[in-house]
Design a protein that fits this description.
The protein is of the alpha/beta class. It has helices at about 5-10, 15-35, 35-45, 65-70, 105-120, 140-155, 165-175, 185-195, 220-230, 340-350, 385-405, 430-435, and strands at about 90, 100-105, 130-135, 155-160, 180, 210, 230-240, 245-250, 255-260, 265-270, 280-290, 300-305, 305-310, 320, 330-335, 335-340, 355-365, 365-375, 410, 425-430. The chain is globular. It binds adenosine-5'-diphosphate and zinc ion (ZN).
Length: about 425
Amino acid sequence: MERYWNKEIECASREEMKKLQSERLVAQVRYVYDNVKYYRDLMDAKGVKPGDIRGLEDLCKLPFLSKADLREGYPYGLLARPLNECVRIHSTSGTTGRRVVAFYTQHDVDMWEDCCARAITAAGGTPDDVCQVAYGYGLFTGGAGLHGGSHKVGCLTLPMSSGNTERQIQFMRDLGATILCCTPSYAAYLGESLHEMGLTPADIKLKAGIFGAEPWTEEMRRSIEKSLGIKAYDIYGLTETSGPGVAFECSAQKGMHINEDNFIPEIINPETGEPLPDGEVGELVFTSITKEAFPLLRYRTRDLCVLSREKCSCGRTLVKMSKPKGRSDDMLIIRGVNVFPSQIETVLIANGYSPNYLIEVDRVNNTDTLDISVEMKPDQFSDKVRDMQLQEKSLASAMKTMLGINPKMHLVAPKSITRSEGKAVRVIDRRKLHD
Ligand code: ADP
Ligand code: ZN
């Protein structure tokens, strides 16, 4: 039986949700205009007044905000409440440049934890569960968000943070963890370590995992589900909008429901800024409608995905977003061809390789080069050089079919690529160093 944290909201009719969003949007725009000079200036420059926003249909009149705006406003430029009303600060992981800091009032923390409680409940979590939080604690939002959500649900919370892999597995066993929260790359590492310790899924009680904060493929999902003996659920969010829990997966495991009562999503053409209809791939944009300290209107996430309002088998009516393909700035342009790291991961895992890989791009004599190193599993390791060359060749041709360009493949020894305990670094683009 499907469980909901807040059935009234999660299963509201389209009309009810639209009405709620419209009311909240109108109030939030007025609030931001009155309290955030940075955004007021953007609205004035575009000639939009709060009174012009009368409902959802007027959203597209508002100016966009980008990460560059947040960097420019660092640290207090987008703050809408006095600091003595704020209770928390978090910061982005800095994956793509200077960190952004976000502020929270107690109301904002409650809203965020509530979103995470919805995600844990959708993954089957109840007060009977033991929830092992192995996301990093600290400035990063992963640990704090799932920790708060787990408390709300009433799970017995195990605040492990990331790292110390043997102890993670020991506690998982000794304390009977049933739900694991961490990045998918760390989940894969934990699965691998479990088997290396001579254990199998039968030795642990895990039933579900809530994995996010970085892109991962369906192939990776299946591989983690098998190695840990669980159902793996995706969760999405970003520091700017609060943290994980902006969207979460349900039992259908096919796209993530967006907590639309707090965040209005739009998909736009990243080049022109034009809104796109449901079903088309574009850049995801969020407008927060309930945040107090750090409200963002039409914030460009740079994540590329598709929205869908098709009926979901779980009964939720919240709009769904597809797994982001990666950020628009994750996309590599190699010899004029668009390449996403996720495409490479799909080919590797579909061909029986491990999710431990490294993509290196460079420019030699004015030509882009693409080198992909992937670890062999112990049983794939061959002492015959010729065998290995054949394997590399066949993998390179599978890549060519997927990507349209020919990479140089390198099969490397098991355990030779560094494991990630947080967000994995999978791409090194040396062309940027030459510029
Ligand atoms: P940073 O931008 O420095 O990595 P964050 O920790 O706030 O800081 O990361 C947010 C970003 O992480 C999102 O914009 C998105 O690109 C990525 N992300 C988060 N969850 C997922 C997910 N489930 N699938 C794919 N990407 C995700
Ligand atoms: Zn659903």
